């Protein structure tokens, strides 16, 4: 695994948003946890509000915004999983 891995969705070379795959596991975990919990909190707030209108354009843009943070968190969790599997095998 390369030390610096571009986050999903960045197809430019050189990529500018990278994950340090050699960062301490607790730092990687906190990074993923923050992003995933932020998305979860926003979605929970929306789910419990009945007075929000559903403009299709706004919802589509809002979904893109949340997807970016969620994808970042999942990418970091992927790095954590690879590192833990490598430790278990080694």
What does this structure look like?
With about 90 residues, the protein is mainly α. The protein has one domain. Helices cover about 65% and strands about 5% of the residues. The chain has helices spanning about 25-45, 55-90, and strands at about 5, 20. It has a two-stranded antiparallel sheet. The protein is elongated and about 55 Å long.
Could you say which overall geometry the principal axes of the C-alpha atoms support? elongated
- How would you classify the helix and strand content by structural class? mainly alpha
Put simply, the count of helices is 2
- The proportion of strand residues reads 5-15%
Which consecutive residue ranges, at least 5 long each, have pLDDT under 50?
Answer: none
Number of strands: 2
Read across the widest sheet, the strand sequence of neighbours is 1-2
Please trace the helix and strand order, writing H or E for each element.
EEHH
Radius of gyration: 16 Å
Kindly, what is the distance between the CA atoms of the first and last residues, rounded to a whole number of angstroms? Answer: 15 Å
Total domain count: 1
The amount of helix comes to 55-70%
Taking the sheet with the most strands, its summary is:
2 strands, antiparallel
Q: Mean of residue pLDDT? A: 89
What features would you highlight for this structure?
elongated; two-stranded antiparallel sheet; 90 residues; mainly alpha
């Amino acid at each position: 695994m390369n030390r610096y891995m571009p986050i999903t969705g960045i197809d430019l070379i050189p990529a500018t948003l990278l994950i340090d795959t050699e960062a301490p596991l607790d730092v990687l975990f906190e990074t993923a946890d923050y992003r995933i919990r932020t998305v979860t909190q926003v979605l929970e707030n929306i789910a419990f509000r009945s007075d929000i209108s559903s403009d299709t354009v706004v919802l589509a843009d809002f979904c893109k915004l949340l997807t970016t943070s969620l994808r970042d968190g999942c990418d970091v969790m992927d790095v954590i999983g690879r590192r833990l599997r490598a430790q278990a095998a080694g």
